[in-house]
Amino acid sequence: PDTYEKHIRDTIIAGDGLCNEDIVRLTIEESTERIKELVTWGANFDRTESGRFDLAREGGHSENRVLKHKDSTGKEIEDTLIEQVQKHPNIEVLENHYGIDIITQHHLGIEVNIRSSDITCFGAYVLNPKTRRIDTILSKITLIATGGSGNIYSNTTNPNISTGDGIAMVYRAKGVIENM
Fold this sequence. Notes:
three-stranded antiparallel sheet; single chain
């Protein structure tokens, strides 16, 4: 039978030992509850005729443990999450806006450098292309989820928007960037 420990070991081996074991462990040990949430929210993963998940075995896995949805698993998960975000009363979605900078003490005239241990994020400056203005969006929590940077290369399968903007914002804010 499959176990979390087996899954953790497979992941670390597949990552050639470069994975942060604490993050791998957290991700895998939380996975069952997160999958249950996705299913409750409407994610439609492939099932066998008996109704069980039709699990696949992929890259470095020693067991069939990968959920899928036809040939568009990522889109199924993304659509499910977008629907939940749109329904949430405390989340406002600003489509077609562009993150410019993360607001930290630096913007208040306080020196912030890579050795600063108390960097605080207050939100972000965001370009609204309709008004051609940069809006200040204050927030108690700021999450950077802007994708990767694959499109800085001439040959990539990454979407056009994967230009590393989020990574650059964190870098300019003197945030820790690791395991890239």
